[in-house]
Design goal:
This protein is an alpha/beta fold and 284 residues long. The protein folds into two domains: 72 residues, Helicase, Ruva Protein, domain 3 (Orthogonal Bundle), CATH 1.10.8; 205 residues, 3-Layer(aba) Sandwich (Rossmann fold). It is built from twelve helices and nine strands. Strands 5-4-3-6-7-9-8 form a seven-stranded mixed beta sheet, with helices on both faces. It has a two-stranded antiparallel ribbon with strand order 1-2. The termini are far apart.
């Protein structure tokens, strides 16, 4: 089948299932399946695709027509410099979290041990292992399924960096009790269960609830991480947590009321929303 014919076919199928903008999604799907830039399908309309490739793209489009997010339909997601395998066992990595990685790279310094709490696909831990200069990176998660995905993504980083990364199962920081840490970073669940109905269907119906929802009006995981971090961070050690902008004041309060922290602040994302809690461990 010519790429132009497949392009038109997918756009019609997606539009018929109310996927807007259908033609742009058809283009992006083809590009993702073929590991090409987004403009590539438009510029290569006369290319003839073999039957196996056509069938694989059509299968992914059928999944999207049922409401599945494109990243799950394709089975991968881009995150900073990495291409990561993703499925419904883990959250889809998002651009805001790329900025969290950037914050940590700029604030954590060199050496020491970094922990990524609730690693999911491994996006944060693997990016920091690849781009940072830490001696060790420990990725924790309460979900065995998520850790299976994260371990599978270890091959996305350069071979010489893979030995830096360790995966441990457990809740919050329990897997690293006894460690002295240079930095703790997390994109934890921060949505209240009562807000489930407010989420887009693509999130609510497809992404893992364990990685989305937290008790105490969405604050339980954040408060737990703040509380447990203070006992594990070395003096001057960094805590950096992605937060819900609607709960920025509560997140800040959780660190400011803990006398073991200093330099507590809320950082904004590129749209100006309050999205990151940053704090330092005081001298012991």
């Amino acid at each position: 089948m010519l790429l132009a014919e497949l392009f038109d076919q997918l756009a019609i199928e997606l539009a018929g299932h109310g996927v807007p903008p259908a033609r742009a999604d058809a283009r992006d799907l083809i590009a993702a399946m073929l590991d090409k830039p987004k403009f590539w399908p438009t510029a290569n309309q006369t290319l003839e695709l073999n039957a196996a490739t056509t069938a694989a793209i059509q299968t992914a489009a059928s999944k999207m027509a049922r409401g599945m997010p494109m990243q799950y339909a394709v089975g991968k997601a881009a995150f900073r410099h990495l291409d990561l395998a993703v499925d419904q066992r883990v959250l889809i990595p998002r651009p805001e979290t790329e900025m969290l990685v950037e914050l940590v790279l700029g604030l954590a310094g060199k050496g020491g041990t970094l922990v990524d709490v609730g690693t999911g696909s491994g996006a944060i831990a693997l990016s920091l292992a690849a781009e940072g200069q830490f001696e060790r990176v420990i990725a924790t998660d309460i979900s065995d399924d998520a850790l299976t995905v994260a371990r599978g993504n270890l091959g996305a980083i350069p071979p010489e960096k893979r030995a830096l990364v360790e995966f441990r199962r457990g809740s919050l920081l329990e897997p690293v009790h006894g460690e002295l840490l240079r930095a703790i970073v997390s994109n934890p669940p921060y949505i209240s269960p009562s807000e489930k109905g407010d989420l887009p269907a693509s999130v609510r119906e497809w992404e893992p609830p364990l990685a989305l929802f937290s008790e105490e009006d969405g604050m339980a995981a954040i408060r737990g991480i703040v509380r447990e971090s203070a006992a594990l961070l070395e003096p001057g050690g960094l805590l950096a947590v992605e937060i819900d902008s609607r709960r920025a004041a509560l997140a800040r309060e959780s660190a400011e009321t803990d006398s073991r922290f200093r330099d507590v602040e809320i950082r904004t994302d590129l749209t100006g929303r309050e999205r990151f809690l940053v704090a330092r461990r005081k001298e012991r």
